[in-house]
Amino acid sequence: KKAGADDPLAAALEEAVRNGRETLDTLRASIPDGAGEQALPVDLNTVVRDILKLSTPRLLAAGVVVDWQPAPELPAIPGRVTQLSTLFKQLVDNAVEALHESRGGPRELRVATLGGIDHLEVVIEDSGPGIPDEWRFKVFEPFFTTKGADQHHLGMGLAIAQEIVARHGGTLDIDAAYRSGCRMRVQLPCASGGPA
Known about the structure:
By secondary structure, the protein is of the alpha+beta class. The protein has helices at 8-30, 44-61, 81-101, 157-167; strands at 40-42, 65-69, 77-79, 108-115, 119-126, 171-174, 182-189. The strands form two sheets. Strands 2-4-5-7-6 form a five-stranded mixed sheet. A two-stranded antiparallel ribbon has the order 1-3.
């Protein structure tokens, strides 16, 4: 007899653990590993610029005005280009989707890179509706989506972004004080604490 067969609480716990493992497996499978891509010195300005170029047709079609403000000089950071490209593509795509939800007003996307003493920062701001305070952490959970079921969104974009940032020893957060839309901040270490 299985341990949870007579105890509904134990059965529910077993199911929750099983579902959690399946969710983590799905999340890990969704993140490209670059076929064993090694961590190499990466120029974040180049990675972000390339993602903005790749996203240009979608940005133009949505009527989004882009303000790209790269730092004049950034040190290379240890990273995996494929994963970092996926990270910034997810964040730009998320911003464009938020701008689609805007009813009127300017559709603006500001992307900036900043150098720090021990880390680099990429700031992505959109003039969309913003993220309510009660969702500020929930949006990073796998399968959480604010889109309707008919929109075919899996709710994996920000979960994938968060996992990639964590793999690179960095942080990803939403600036709760920003009220003109949404401001995402990605901080990645310059040397130690890089990707595993």
